[in-house]
Amino acid sequence: MKIAVICANGKEGKLLVKEALARGLDVTAVARGENKTAATKFVSKDLFDLTADDLKNFDVVIDAFGAWSPETLPLHGASLKHLCDLLSGTATRLLVVGGAGSLYIDKEHSLCVADAPDFPNAFKPLAAAMAAALKDLRARRDVRWTYVSPAGDFQAEGERTGRYILGGEELTLNSRGESAISYADYAVAMIDEAESGRHVQQRISVVRE
């Protein structure tokens, strides 16, 4: 299996590369500047400069793009649209490192995590931008996408246990009432999905076991 990790120099991107390499997969890291990953195959290119030819030989493309400043938040939607346009009509799957703010907190799917009164105001613009990008992604029937939302507490420095609970559209809690997962265990879940391809054109979510 040939996998490309886009924006591979980020914290999650590097862990995705490491996890995929540990399983013996053929991994190409893609990022601006120099290679900061464990991959021996590297493409130094901005996401928005990628072409269809750049991605045509991969079975799976993982989008680990992230933006946090007010002026760059719209790039969540723009970057995802660009990758979808490049992969439109192909057999290549697109896996997206998503957000938790758009997970539903009611059975009717009328309220999201970001709608809760205790959701931090500082993160609302980011959650809104990522939710808008997901909404646009759901409309793409020409791309074999999967959107993977982390738990509410997404821990950059957490340990890798190799265990997680797979959820769907709703915020899932573990047996201790927690919604948390480490970046490392999220990478385990993402590469599991890359290998299995069980949730094409679906949003899934993961939480620490």
TrEMBL record:
Domain NAD(P)-binding: from-to ranges: 8-193
SUPFAM superfamilies for the chain: NAD(P)-binding Rossmann-fold domains
A molecular function GO annotation: oxidoreductase activity, acting on the CH-NH group of donors, NAD or NADP as acceptor
CDD domains (alphabetical): BVR-B_like_SDR_a
Domain of life the protein comes from: Bacteria
Pfam families linked: NAD_binding_10 (PF13460)
Protein name: NAD(P)H-binding protein
Source species: Pyramidobacter porci
Organism ancestry: Bacteria, Thermotogati, Synergistota, Synergistia, Synergistales
